[in-house]
Design brief:
By secondary structure, the chain is of the alpha/beta class. It has 20 helices and 19 strands. Among the domains are: about 1-55, no CATH class; about 230-275, no CATH class. The longest helix has 23 residues, at about 460-480.
Length: about 525
């Protein structure tokens, strides 16, 4: 079985094959490579544009996620419904209705950081697509009562940031991002500030804690899309030189006269800015956690990526020993703003597999009576069935599902449609619903009633985010009701079953033909 898709051609890299689907299964090349072809495939474009073709295009306008089909994924499991009883409410048809399902969750070492819905919008950093839609996304997260994380490099990438002696003393962009959430905060959910290597050097979290009133910080080991630091593209020489002076890796070197001449001559149009990789040590990790708490951090999170199993074990053990308030594990296959395309497809442990390992490690902590951190699992989740399966797979440890691309999509679409409606240019697809915001956005009337005069100030993309999350909430309530689980705390591992023996072997979730076997035998007698 060939799991790779788009080996030598993909919409992500704007490449295609001359022979269409007729390609060699391993190399991805056309079965016949023709002398005279203009070279529209990835190999051909690489011979012209070189390392530029490493990345999904067009940068700054897209998010991207892996195209690879993994051997086992969450579709290899189904949800187990039942006709008997109810957990969390009275077993009465007039009481046990799906609107009665409680989706509230909580993180924090002591469960004192409430979420209205079990969702965390994972770190949105300095990429253009995140920055251009942040106010919509943050406001949407706030009114929905979910968590959101300000990602890496936001301060370092801010042209107006003031840095003295290598430390940030003013960060307008970071301050604005925080306010974009707090201005709409309604008592549930949270905003956290993440830090990578460069952020830590700049003192971003110290600044956020001391000057901006932030209470929650997140240490970042990595993410599921790549095993290197963050990267963006820069389209002016001046911008490249500014970031190079702030200590970033910028390619090619913008201070090199030969590079400057090549740029001015039009040989290339963009510079690459890269972050450094972190170097995790146990002592260093605990020292940093202690330091942040002494600086006033009320909650300290850790996010780790799709590294090898030993690194996941480190994350789990360190999080336990330090009583981390939320451990987010991000599996391969999820999306990001601009990761190398082949790396995104071929690196790291896919989400299902890393969650199976995560469950084993958390079970071992629990068995010996150690502190078990609250956990969020991330890596390509978008819909309510994904949420149910993710929560059940590692029950009772998963307190939230991490999402990034899908809320950002909701923000972008909500923004674009909302602005078109305000301009009196309702897209044809939505004219059948009416001409007004309250007619087109199904949740707009509710929000207008709830927010009153402030509704007019709400970024329109936030309506899209809220509406998307409400769809997820109702869908999840329906599935939980069918399983007779009326609160997240009642979801168990046997609320799902594996459709293949391989899926069962990987996760420990029972195979469909073995599911409920003992109980069924007792019933039959």
């Amino acid at each position: 079985m060939n799991f790779s898709k788009g080996i030598n051609a993909s919409a992500a890299t704007l490449t295609k094959l001359r022979t269409g689907d007729s390609s060699c299964p391993f190399s991805g090349m056309c079965v016949t490579c023709l002398d005279g072809c203009p070279g529209l495939c990835e190999i051909g474009k690489s011979s012209i544009r070189g390392k530029e073709t490493l990345y999904p295009q067009p940068f700054g306008k897209i998010t991207a996620a892996a195209q690879k089909a993994y051997p086992v994924d969450y579709s290899h499991f189904n949800i187990a419904g039942t006709a008997v009883g109810a957990n969390g409410v009275a077993a009465d048809p007039d009481v046990a209705t799906f609107p009665a399902v409680n989706l509230e969750s909580a993180v924090g070492a002591y469960g004192d950081l409430p979420l209205r819905l079990p969702i965390v919008v994972a770190g949105m950093g300095s990429t253009n697509v995140a920055a251009d839609n942040w106010d919509h996304l943050a406001a949407g997260a706030a009114i929905s009562g979910v968590g959101i994380v300000i990602g890496e490099n936001v301060v370092g990438m801010d042209p107006k940031a003031e840095i003295k002696n290598g430390r940030v003393v003013k960060a307008p962009n970071l301050e604005r991002r925080i306010k974009d959430f707090t201005n709409w905060y309604n008592g549930k959910g949270f905003i956290a500030v993440q830090a990578n290597v460069e952020d830590t050097k700049l003192g971003v979290q110290e600044y956020a804690l001391e000057k901006l009133g932030v209470e929650i910080v997140e240490l970042k080991w990595g993410q599921g899309a790549k095993d290197i630091g963050g990267e963006v593209k820069l389209n002016t020489l001046e911008r490249a030189q500014q970031l190079y002076s702030r200590g970033y890796i910028v390619l090619p070197n913008p201070d090199d006269p030969a590079v400057q001449k090549a740029y001015k001559d039009g040989a290339f149009a963009e510079f690459e800015r890269h972050s450094r990789i972190g170097m995790v040590t146990e002592d260093g990790f605990h020292a940093r956690v202690k330091e942040l708490r002494e600086l006033g951090a009320k909650y300290v999170f850790l996010k780790t990526g799709a590294y090898r199993a030993a690194d996941l074990a480190r994350a789990v053990k360190f999080a336990s020993d330090a009583k981390i308030d939320l451990l987010t594990v991000d599996g391969a296959g999820g999306g990001t703003g601009m990761s190398p395309w082949r790396m995104m497809n071929e690196w790291g442990i896919p989400t299902l597999y890393i969650q199976a390992l995560l469950t084993r490690y958390l079970d071992r902590l629990a068995a010996k009576g150690a502190f078990v951190p609250k956990v969020a699992i991330a890596g390509g989740f978008t819909l309510e069935d994904h949420m149910f399966k993710a929560i059940a797979m590692s029950a009772p440890y998963i307190k939230a599902v991490g999402m990034a691309r899908s809320p950002l999509t909701a923000a972008m679409v909500g923004k674009n449609i909302g602005e078109a409606v305000k301009a009196g240019k309702v897209p044809n697809e939505y004219k059948k619903y009416g001409e007004k915001m309250e007619q087109i956005f199904i949740q707009a009337s509710y929000l207008k009633n709830d927010l009153g005069k402030d509704f007019a100030k709400l970024p329109v993309g936030a309506i899209g985010v809220y509406t998307y999350f409400e769809r997820l909430a109702q869908g999840l309530r329906q599935m939980m009701c069918g399983a007779r689980k009326f609160g997240l705390e009642f979801i168990e591992r046997d609320d799902i079953f594996a459709l293949t023996k391989e899926a069962s072997e990987i996760t420990g979730i029972k195979y469909v033909m073995d599911h409920d076997a003992e109980e069924a035998d007792k019933i039959i007698g």
